User: Fold this.
Amino acid sequence: MQFELKTNDPKSKARAGVITTDHGTIETPIFMPVGTVGTVKGVHQSELKDEINPDIILGNTYHLYLRPQTKILEEAGGLHKFMNWDRNILTDSGGYQVYSLSGRRKINEEGVKFKSHIDGSTHFFTPENVMEIQRSIGADIIMAFDECTPYPCDYGYAKRSMHMTHRWLKRCVNHLEKVPPKYGYNQTLFPIVQGSTYTDLRKESAEFIASVGAEGNAIGGLSVGEPAEEMYAMTDVVCSILPEDKPRYLMGVGTPINILENIALGVDMFDCVMPTRNARNGMLFTAHGSINIKNKKWENDFSPIDEMGITWVDTMYSKAYLRHLFAAREMLGKQIASIHNLGFYLWLTREARKHIIAGDFAEWKDKMVKQMNKRL
Amino acid sequence: MQFELKTNDPKSKARAGVITTDHGTIETPIFMPVGTVGTVKGVHQSELKDEINPDIILGNTYHLYLRPQTKILEEAGGLHKFMNWDRNILTDSGGYQVYSLSGRRKINEEGVKFKSHIDGSTHFFTPENVMEIQRSIGADIIMAFDECTPYPCDYGYAKRSMHMTHRWLKRCVNHLEKVPPKYGYNQTLFPIVQGSTYTDLRKESAEFIASVGAEGNAIGGLSVGEPAEEMYAMTDVVCSILPEDKPRYLMGVGTPINILENIALGVDMFDCVMPTRNARNGMLFTAHGSINIKNKKWENDFSPIDEMGITWVDTMYSKAYLRHLFAAREMLGKQIASIHNLGFYLWLTREARKHIIAGDFAEWKDKMVKQMNKRL
Assistant:
């Protein structure tokens, strides 16, 4: 993997760059749609590629390990072939899901014993086997196995957990060297900064992660319930320490406003279930504010979903029609809203990139944050 | 509306024709995808038009009257504009749904009082107001308000009900003359033959319906649980009486095999929820038999869903991937299967038409029935 830093915004810490992997280039800043179990919910691969057009999407190690299971993905020749997606894939390590989905988990230095949320069967994740699973999935960017602490988290726990995450990282790095890629292309490991909302821990973690010299670095343990200002403060501290010449990935973030604010702090990559999850609940993001399409006020508003027409659904369907689909609990409503929201998120990060390159990102960001804060 | 009979098959009663309405031509035999509440479940209008490519789809008066409601459709300028579909639409009259969805209904000579399955509110359908509602929906072909008798149905009830359906038809015809179309294009009323599974009643009903001189005629009250042989026997009796020079529509039928057998008896138009409903349950129809994609045998079958590639989903996704989507209860599975099945149904009726025109329909039909009867 290579990363070329193209432009630094003069009035913020925003950057525009290009990542190159064996599956092509990724222009940053980028939002990565989440395809938890090998599908971006409600969106055909052709729509994803041709309309939403991200250079990279996410898969999830925990979910893919349980279903369809590693052996099926190996037989398929990896996740790219299994789901028919020929661009980049990043897999998160399953750390977050083990903590959030499996109430029944036991964590110790060796790894995490957990029960499947599907059938209650017992499994054990270690830094080593999670590397092997991600080799089998075949993502281009694979994530270190970490503990994602909740919010709030007491200082002592956050510190101990962070140190264990660091020790686990060494095990990930060591083991990955022993297990070659399975499908003829390279896979790059991103380590993850932890440290909850404690500035000193975040600094220590960022310094440790930076010292590993990985080709890209991630910030985890944020967007877990803390106020946005705390998130921004932590991102700022961490970005000031992580190397300039490597991409920075802020995991699980966030609203369109969160994304722009974190781009301004030097983050290059984002992922979040919000555009698709909120879409399925009838919430649309637009450049002029958010829309609750279930609201009665849209009942006879026959104007297009979004005049901007970022994706074809925006002008093919009216607000009144989309509201009707949600009222009648029709699948098509969720499909339309998912395409709209993902299209908007990708438009937003592409626009951010254009403005960074043009040198007017900071002004544009402030204007957009104000606009997007409205409820239509 | 015009109907031109193009070809009669030499060895069966199958026919190929062309219906022309203000929204374009409909090549028959045709299968009409069901879009109950203004959406063919799980399928974008663009996919419907470009990939599945039917000349006509169905809407449902009962459902559309309850949601989004007639006034919204009027404000939208009719269902075509509301859902953004510029080809033909047929609406069934709501008779079937009043009986099947609303356990709490009271039927008398005047009409049917029923409770909404959504909120329990009370409504009253009469032949007159159902014509008005269909004017507001704006379908190209509108159906008479009838009583669809269940199976089995005792002779006395079937006879009384049929006579009432005939009286209701006169009221439909009379009232429709008084209420002009709302959107500048013509709407054609199809009356419906009833008579349960009694040959003498079916004959009497078909003669009465034929005497009305409508531009097209429908056969109702079949595919409600009776053995296929009884359905075919009734279709055969009715088709021998309904006029040759008008299209014949067999309502709510059926499996791919049912469709071919009824085409052989002289039916021109079909609709059924089966391709989409079964799709949502993981059942795929193919030219070589049906597939239960949830079956473990497909777990590591990475071959395309259907080598025939009628629609793009067939070759974009593998059986193993589709099985995984169903196992993980992912929306995309239902979407893929729906497009596949509808594509197959439309292919089947188009192929039937080609073979009727080529003069070898009967042989082809026998071969297809044998093939499609298999479980893969």
Q: What stands out?
A: Chain A has a mean pLDDT of 97. Residues 217 and 248 of chain A are 5 Å apart (CA to CA). The longest strand of chain A covers residues 2-8. Residues 31-272 of chain A form a domain with the TIM Barrel fold (CATH 3.20.20.105).
